[in-house]
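Backbones bend. Our protein:
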Amino acid sequence: MDGIQYGARVTNFTSPKEYAAIVDAILNSTTFASRTMRMAKPFNKTTMRKNVKVSRTNQGQWFQGLTTLNSSAVQTTIQLEFGQNLYTAPIVDVLDEAFARETSDKTVDEPGFRYEETISETMQDLSDAMYGVGSSTMPLGLGAIVDDGTNKSNYGGQSRTTYDMLNATVTDSSGIISLAKMATMEDAISDTGEKETMTTWLTTQSIWNLYESLLTPTITTNASTVGYNKLGVSDFSISKPGQLKGGLGFTALTFRGVPIIKDKACTSGVLFGLNEHYLNWYGRNKVPAGWKGELKNISLGKAKVIENRQKMPSSSHGFFRQSKKFMVQQAGSVERIYLVGQMLSWAPRRQGKLTGITSIA
């Protein structure tokens, strides 16, 4: 054949109509990232700061008559501080490929596909980061937040050695998962009060299967017959099989009424116990004043080209899109997706994890 020959970047977008819906099968599911982004909160400061109580004043007293009364001024708080992190991914188009795609049987929106593809890959990268320990350029992940100082000795600018309330509960499971160990973990990180109890267990597919094998045969048979419970994608509700109508939900088992969900990105051998009242993604939701002609907010609603992608409607997700720029010395263009935000917990002591799980007793 004479002339330029094109590969999949062109031919995959000039296919018959029955192939127009592109199923995004190569990306791993992003259960935790998707759920966390749905419940994102705004990052609306230069840095996120919060005063956290770390001790009592111990000045209150019972008294009688002319007893000398306590009147000392006591420092009881420290300030946690977190900065933002930024991620970017390009969307590149080549001029001669764009010409080659302009055919009479064009049925796939190639620019739309590239856009949604970049968003999906960004979500996968974010999902991986959400299990990491973070760095100067990467956001904090569960490896840093659900930690006892092993991975990250300082948290929010404060020493975990000095302030042990910044430590999560980390327990070496010695290879074994058991209901007793899970109960001990939940008791350690929970307290009385509406927001002080666990909301979610999070783990790998293999550990999820191990836990299922611990359940009584009646429960296991019932789940396989009528279906599993579903955890709401953006709340703490649990729906029984058949109750979730017209909505999305993550497949869940339960322990003491707390849902257990699985995520392919989850750290191997780990079962996280999370209180999502105190664990959030904080994302930027406003374009800086000097960039309003260059950047715009992205709506993360239902994908139009790639199927099977989670919807993430929070306006504080932190996604922005830079307008297309033509390359100066090359026949092509580039636009960019930006993600700006930070994941953090104001109460690490309400988080925990069992590590080293490989089997049941």
About this structure: Residues 177-279+352-360 form one domain. Residues 286 and 292 are 9 Å apart (CA to CA). The helical segments are 8-11, 31-38, 95-101, 110-129, 142-145, 179-189, 205-214, 217-226. The first strand starts at residue 22 and ends at 23.
